[in-house]
Amino acid sequence: xxxxxxxxxxxxxxxxxxxxxxxxxxFRNVDQAPKDPILGVTEAFLADQSPNKVNVGVGAYRxxxxxxxxxxxxxxxxxxxxxxxxxxxxxxxxxxxxxEESLKLAYGENSDFIKDKRIAAVQAxxxxxxxxxxxxxxQRFHPGTQIYIPVxxxxxxxxxxxxAGVPLKTFRYYYPESRGLDFSGLMEDIKNAPNGSFFxxxxxxxxxxxxxxxxxxxxxxxxxxxxxxxxPFFDMAYQGFASGSPERDAKAISIFLEDGHLIGLAQxxxxxxxxxxxxxxxxxxxxxDEKQAVAVKSQxxxxxxxxxxxxxxxxxxxxxxxxxxxxxxKLWLEEVKGMADRIIGMRATLRxxxxxxxxxxxxxxxxxxxxxxxxxxxxxxxxxxxxxxxHIYMTxxxxxxxxxxNSGNVGYIADxxxxxxxxx
Length: 424
Ligand SMILES: Cc1ncc(COP(=O)(O)O)c(C=O)c1O
Known about the structure:
Blueprint: H1 7-14, H2 39-47, E1 54-55, H3 72-81, H4 96-107, H5 112-115, E2 119-125, H6 126-141, E3 147-151, H7 155-163, E4 168-172, E5 174-175, E6 180-181, H8 183-192, E7 198-202, H9 215-227, E8 231-236, H10 246-249, H11 251-258, E9 264-268, E10 280-286, H12 290-308, H13 314-324, H14 326-356, H15 364-368, E11 373-375, H16 380-390, E12 392-393, E13 399-401, H17 410-421
Parallel strand pairs: 1-12, 3-4, 3-7, 7-8, 8-9
Antiparallel strand pairs: 2-10, 5-6, 9-10, 11-13
Helix pairs in contact: 3-13, 3-14, 4-13, 6-7, 6-12, 8-9, 9-11, 13-14, 14-17, 16-17
Bound molecules: pyridoxal-5'-phosphate (PLP).
Pyridoxal-5'-phosphate (PLP) binds at residues 59, 126-128, 154, 202, 207, 235, 237, 268, 270, 276, 281.
GO molecular function: L-aspartate:2-oxoglutarate aminotransferase activity; pyridoxal phosphate binding
InterPro entries: Aminotransferase_I/II_large, Asp_trans, NHTrfase_class1_PyrdxlP-BS, PyrdxlP-dep_Trfase, PyrdxlP-dep_Trfase_major, PyrdxlP-dep_Trfase_small
EC number: 2.6.1.1
């Protein structure tokens, strides 16, 4: 090949003797990254050949036949938008219609904050992207200030704020003995955090525990956060999916708004509209006035522009079509309630099945907890036994995705759980 006569060819032949390195060598020492604790479960599940295998690891909704679901409202929205839309870029801040609908859903249809244009908001790459964008914004404009995240929390929260260069601290949240909220620990940690800290709160259906504060507890949390001058950032990945009512699931937010907080908020349509892979979400920051909101929005766009330029179009069109059409929105509300109700029903059936088998352990927390996950209280060793002996896959923290349980497998799962926990 002509290369041997070329300047490049000569350089290559002289090679490392002259200190010239092939470009492949700079990543020679890169180690394999650790597996993601959640996505790694799916990999192991897929590799298992057993006909009995069950995946209750990943938080994706399945129907009572164990099948993924495309909501009817989404199918109808897709029909309506098919071919009718151009495929140009969205603006940097994403679909204006999607953002408007998202704000109405979270802050209330008749919110004064919306009317007064006090909310800076952009379409985001689902809930993860909204959190990541906020973390970058926090790092840029309030550098060095830590964010407190609950123990435990969705494992990606750690990565998101760490990668954005924000120092992380934790606050107590879950009390293993009661399998419920460590309310006094949580309040103490909020009180002891330096004034003006950031606090990450799950708006509803806390992941992984399924344990949410009561309304009264939210009021106390809100007062204390206000007294301390902390900044609350809400991650709302499950609005509507927890109780079946988007309004009820946004109660914590409305309490904070009533109390006069400025807030940050991540919204996702992955679970409540089943748009997982479409990556549709919204990041909003409630500001003091319109001028500030305009400035904050412009800075959020400035951060997103070099990251991904502008967000994707298709999912935004689906979600905004559903939310913007009264008929489709009504259908969505019914369907999201249907998903929530199936999960609530499965909680009762799983508990009943465990109790029926004479399990000596208390299982009330299965029905007390809410949302997609049940924090079962099983140890990592018990989870290992479930996987190795019964082909049931979940994260080693004992988190069960209730969405993966159905009438066909609930008996098998209860049996297996009983077998691995009965001598505990
Ligand atoms: C608490 C929480 N936040 C955010 C997300 C982000 O999901 P997505 O990026 O798919 O919207 C999830 C998903 O599991 C979650 O549980």
